Amino acid sequence: MNAEDRIERTRTLYDQAVFGGDAGALTDADRDLDAVEADTSLARGRILHARFLHARAHTGSSPAEDPAELPLFERALKLYRTLGDARGEGEALFWIGCLHQVIRRDNETALPALEQSCQLAARTGDKPIHAEALRHLGIAAHMAGRLDEAREHLEESSRLRREIGAMPGLASNMVGLAYIAAAQNRRTDALTTLDEAHAIAQAHGAHALARQIQQTRTEI
What we know:
Blueprint lengths: L2 H16 L5 H36 L9 H15 L2 H18 L3 H18 L2 H17 L3 H18 L2 H17 L3 H17 L3 H13 L1
């Protein structure tokens, strides 16, 4: 049920409560509105995160964190847990972990949220979030110098992204795999991976990613 359907259903539930005397309808209405609020909070948080990434890409330095972002993700997490929505809970946990890792550069705080997200996404069959969580667990392992573990996470994330057709995300993973290959003295593999990543980015209109891939080529 989408947000519009849920909100429309609360009109019917209101009538049931007021005219039919069904107090239980109000509980159902609260749950519908909590689900809408959870989804909206998550969506608003994602937009704030995208603004951060856009500003960082265009200035070359990290902008200030928007103080509204984390509370939005935390509100979504609380609501999803109350609703018993494990898929939503896994997604909210991913974004909380992502914020701590990407914006605050705090892997120690990020890792528990990312690990829980990965487990919930796998359990609920949420392949997009499963792939995201694996990617960021790979980033954390790479930053800690655990290159084999990082490669394993990114390769599994890439398999999932290829399976669901998330091709720009796949190309983004390949950038990470190229850095890992270079760190493992596999420069030929790194360059071949970047060639494929660039072709995917170009084919799917991911122009910002294509520029990043070209920059990566100069660095390795």
